[in-house]
UniProtKB/TrEMBL annotation:
Name of this protein: DUF397 domain-containing protein
InterPro entries, sorted: DUF397 (IPR007278)
Domain DUF397: 12-67
Superkingdom of source: Bacteria
């Protein structure tokens, strides 16, 4: 995927992060289906129609690893 193209995420299946802490309003969602494009879409579950961050898969992996080191 080049920097100017964006994958079509209209059919994405979103997963709520286990670090979100239930339904207290601090919820992060991601979808796994686009890692093959080199990105991981991430959004705020309170705003499903809002902006989506397209994180490089490497950056997402580093973020998750950091969370696992510091629960």
């Amino acid at each position: 995927m080049d920097l100017m193209s964006t994958p079509d995420i209209s059919g994405a299946v979103w997963v709520k992060s286990s670090y979100s802490g239930g339904n207290e309003g601090q919820c992060l969602e991601y979808t796994r289906g686009f890692v093959t494009d080199g990105v991981v879409p991430v959004r705020d579950s309170k705003r499903p129609g809002g902006p989506v961050l397209m994180l490089p898969a490497v950056a997402w992996a580093e973020f998750v690893a950091a969370l696992e080191r510091h629960p």
